[in-house]
Specification:
alpha+beta; Jelly Rolls; four-stranded antiparallel β-sheet; 3 helices; globular
Length: 194
Amino acid sequence: MKSLLMTTAVAALAATALTSTASADKYADVVTNFTIGANIDPLASHADPTRALGAWNSPAAGHAVTLGAGGTLTVEFLDNRLVDSTGDDLKIREHGGADDYMVEISADNTTYYSLGSKAGGASELFDINSVVIASGIDEFRYVRITDITEDGDTSNGAEIDYVFAQNSIDAPVPEPASLALLGLGSLVIIRRCK
């Protein structure tokens, strides 16, 4: 009985500590897909999709990813989720020319819902309320941005500097110490069973 109680206590402690919710920043964390469009040298520094991650970078510093004509960028929020709340929920900073782009969001990186298109050149705001109502989904992890081009367009496409979840909730993230505690708990269980 004492062994069972000890095993249960260790397992409960490990499960509770497995995730913690640190205060997350609201910027996209990782690039999950980047398909470079036409008119862009894939080796050029402005073709680096990680330039769209994190906080705003000064346009003078040239820290934005250029999608290329018809290019697509998909980013993911790891430590937070985009949610609907009062006002606009998503902010995308595009600088450069007034290049049109389409924005879609997804909870699972499989099914995407359109938020419409915008003409770039500044920070654009999106309200996800209609998507939440239509889909029944209230938390989104992925944002896909696709440059919209006309036939014969010779532009470099939209230049994305950041993707920001103005309205978001923190998501639980496993901590390394918690994983170590879970491993220790497993060793105790194995030893008690012998």
